[in-house]
């Protein structure tokens, strides 16, 4: 399996580079870590063990550079969402969401799910972010506290935030709509 790579540019001069691989590819993923800036290892937070899949995030900003290492029990492509009002870079990887200080890489909080996380959705109109896993939607405040949660009876395969509503597509092709502010069916 080839190591995945992705480069993303965020507002405020923040750029990120992701590398990720499958089980046993830690050396390939971490082998070219850059030595400038702080290195944060958050592998233990996933409780995935030594054979876990690995990811590395390298962030450069006007105030410096940092690198974070993550692990997952399932192969996954990491994705990031910047919440600039809270100065948080949220990274979805495997079963977790990690909230990093976007400028320093310091971990503000993390939240683990019982199933793989599909996406993290944010809007300046919400006072929380939405963490969508295969079986649950969780609204998380800037400090990581749960604002609300909604369980689903079918596996969710896609989530989109449209006009204040969360449009969830289930494995069976049905759509479930939630009010993004409250989690109530819309």
Task: Describe the protein's topology.
Blueprint lengths: L3 E7 L3 E8 L4 H5 L7 E4 L11 E9 L2 E9 L6 E5 L4 E6 L2 E6 L5 E6 L4 E5 L7 E5 L2 E5 L5 E6 L4 E7 L2 E6 L4 E5 L7
Parallel strand pairs: 3-5
Antiparallel strand pairs: 1-2, 2-4, 4-5, 6-7, 7-8, 8-9, 10-11, 11-12, 12-13, 14-15, 15-16
Overall description:
By secondary structure, the chain is mainly β. The protein is built from 1 helix and 16 strands. Strands 1-2-4-5-3 form a 5-stranded mixed sheet.
Structure summary:
It is built from one helix and 16 strands. By secondary structure, it is mainly β. The N and C termini lie far apart (42 Å).
List keywords for this structure.
186 residues; mainly beta; 5-stranded mixed sheet; globular
Rg calc: 16 Å
**Sequence stretches where pLDDT stays below 50 over 5 or more residues:** none
What is the rounded distance between the termini?
Answer: 42 Å
Lateral strand order in the biggest sheet: 1-2-4-5-3
H/I helix tally: 1
**Strand residue percentage:** over 45%
What is the overall shape? Answer: globular
For the biggest sheet, the summary is: 5 strands, mixed
What letter string, H or E per element, gives the SSE order? Answer: EEHEEEEEEEEEEEEEE
Structural class: mainly beta
Count of extended strands: 16
Please bin the fraction of helical residues.
under 10%
**Overall pLDDT score:** 93
């Amino acid at each position: 399996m080839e190591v995945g790579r992705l480069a993303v540019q965020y507002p405020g001069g923040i750029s990120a580079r992701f590398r990720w691989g499958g089980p046993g590819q830690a050396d390939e993923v971490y082998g070219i870590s850059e030595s400038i800036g702080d290195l944060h290892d958050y592998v233990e937070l996933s409780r995935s063990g030594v054979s876990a899949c690995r990811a590395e995030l390298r962030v450069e900003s006007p105030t410096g550079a940092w690198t974070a290492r993550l692990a997952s029990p399932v192969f996954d492509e990491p994705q990031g969402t910047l919440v600039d009002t809270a100065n948080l870079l949220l990274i979805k990887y495997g079963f977790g969401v990690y909230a990093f200080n976007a400028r320093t890489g310091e971990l503000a909080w993390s939240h683990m799910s019982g199933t793989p996380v599909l996406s993290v959705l944010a809007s300046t109109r919400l006072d929380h972010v939405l963490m969508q896993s295969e079986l649950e939607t969780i609204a998380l405040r800037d400090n990581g506290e749960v604002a609300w949660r909604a369980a689903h009876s079918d596996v969710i395969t896609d989530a989109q935030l449209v006009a204040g509503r969360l449009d969830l597509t289930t494995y069976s092709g049905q759509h479930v709509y939630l009010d993004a502010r409250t989690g109530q069916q819309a």
